[in-house]
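Re: weekly structure request thread

Next one in the queue (590 aa):
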Amino acid sequence: MSKKTKKDVGAILRRNGVGFRVWAPFADSVSIKGSFNNWSYEVPLTNEEDGYWSCFIKGAMAGQEYKYFIKNGDELLIRNDPRAYHFTTSAGNSVITKKNYQPETTNFQPIPLDQQVIYELHVGTFNRPDAAINGTFNDLIDKLDYLKELGINMIELMPINSMMMDRGWGYAIDYIYSVESLYGGRYGFMKFIEAAHAKGIGVILDLVFNHFGPDNNMDLWNFDGWHQEDMGGIYFYNDWRAETPWGNTRPDFGRPEVQQYILDSVSMWMHDCRVDGLRIDSTIYIRNVKGSNNDPEHDLPEGWLLLQRINTIAKKINPYAITIAEDVADNEYLVKPNKQGGAGFNSQWELNFPFALREALYSDKPDMINLASLCAELTHRYNDDTYARIIFVDSHDTAANGSARFNDVISPGKADSTFAKKQSLIAAAILLTAPGIPMLFQGQEFLQGGSFNDWQGLDWDNVPRMTGIIEAYKHLIALRKNQAGISAGLCGRYINLLHVDDDNKVIAYHRWRDGGPKDDVVILINFGNRLYQPYEIGFPRNGLWRVRFNSNWKGYCNEFSGLNVEDVHVENGGGSILLPPSTVVILSQD
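Done, posted below.
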């Protein structure tokens, strides 16, 4: 098999027809038929003697369906095109599809990392007007104004590739080039990208390369009839390296053709679809068979090379794109540059952050509150880079897999209780003032309850009931992005734990970029159930410190005490402040 990159693989539209090329190195013959010839006869493909087969069909055009017919000995295999951009259904036919879509607007400005506020969502459940069917990209477009008003400027989509089932999280991928037709397909996705860009919102796409599958339910499995040890054939490892938690379905990263198959899809999403970032799912299972860190025996060097090449290609196409690893191992080399032996990601999911928040906020009893983990998370960073981590209160993983959303965990069965509201706002304030790139999970801002699943749409009736809580999120996000020019430190790289009072369950931290008025920000949090009149604390500098946010304000919830927290006059480095229980106060100077 050739180790050279092969151009024009898949169905390529030409001026007077379509060129077809497919990789099937162990086939004895390959042919094709489709609606371009009324499915009446098979057109043979020419063996290019390097594992690829090709033909040109004059008069074929976009919208027509087709399938490959592959013979291996006595076996006849009817296969879809692994590189098809669209399918009638995942079990149906491949569809000839235009590669590019010409947008009406092309002047979208990349959002700097220090300004990004991400919103993770699942297309099928985010906005589901009809409970009987999946949500679509058009349904997402209907909520873009809502997200913009909230302050979101980056949307992270859970995987949108074609799925074997009509509903799913998106992580059981059968084709990596196509967009789920029930969501609106490739055209619907590109229209969504255009609509998001027109609102000033970038789009991050979640991609799954750690496994394909599930196994023999997909066309990639034993694609051209060859396999070893009852394994998956040319697209997969055919030995112990195939093993993953999701079946023996790990792609063979060591095969040049498989690497090209993956890397060309990255190029497609970045260049043709104009996404603004990528999240690569479970990178630890790309770089290690067992999903372990510091485990040379089971490492996959070719998997690490693949991660490096993904980042190289993504940044070459869009130098401002963000690339994110979900790895679980807190390995700093994931976010080191390639030239330093790193994988080259901008950032990685900080998986300990949400659990540290839960330890600190699940109870109002002081002896049950653990602040140590949270304090460690506030100051944790990779390679001294503030933005090398994505922090969150909830994600699709923490809100499921036997657990539930944060507000439902801390207040079981009463996800919209006063306690849940107070603690959720503290969690949100920490998220949006801590070093890192903050990410919200769908419905978090209006206290969606329960666990995340692939069938239950968000309860948008919560929005009018939670206008105060949503307003608090808007205020916090505006501070995080320094929209009023009074909180530049929250866009900065620096943090100092000013104060840790474990006895009284109070902490304070200082954020800054360059320092000084309108830059220095102090975040003061009372995790306990006591009112302090007043609380003495040190500040970074003397002068008047104005209250920019008080999570106990009645405007956020009529059930809150609404105790007024006044601005603080600091002399000799210290000041006193009224500090209500279960409250966050954010201060800065004019």
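The two ends are 67 Å apart (CA to CA). The mean pLDDT is 95.
Next request, please.
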